[in-house]
Amino acid sequence: MHVNNTAEEKEAVTQQKSKLGVRLFFIYLICYAGFVILGVFKYELLATTVFWGLNLALTYGIGLIVFAVILGVIYNFFCTKYEDQADETENKMEGGIK
Questions:
Q1: What beta strand segments (E) does the chain contain?
Q2: What is the mean pLDDT of residues 11-31?
Q3: What residues does 49 pair with on adjacent strands?
Q4: Does a structural domain hold residue 98?
Q5: How many domains does the chain have?
Q6: Looking at the predicted structure, is the pLDDT value of residue 26 above 90?
Q7: How confident is the model at residue 66 (pLDDT cuts 50, 70, 90)?
Q8: Neighbour-count burial for 10-41, b at 16+ CB within 10 Å, e otherwise
Q9: Domain span at 41
Q10: What's phi and psi for 97, nearest 5 deg?
Q11: Average pLDDT over every residue of 54-83
Q12: Distances (CA, A) of 2 to 6, 28, 66, 79
């Protein structure tokens, strides 16, 4: 469990995590919008068999789910990194004593 003692450190980490979350959200939004646009304007393309007998709609949908999980792992990795860096900075400021 990561605890930031100062309000400034907590605010800085919160801002970094928020910016990262928004960026990842927009990356996912673009990919999802592509799926929706295909479904609205080129719906016949979604019936195309891509591989292993699966059509594009199913492949794209499963891909979106897997991509969302990957983005979640990336978000968790970087949020943990940001908090660890804040803890290291805090420890250096305290002289390494906790």
A1: 49-51, 54-55
A2: 93
A3: 55
A4: no
A5: 1
A6: yes
A7: very high
A8: eebbeebeeeeeeebeeebeeeeeebeebeee
A9: 9-87
A10: -100, 130
A11: 94
A12: 12, 28, 28, 11
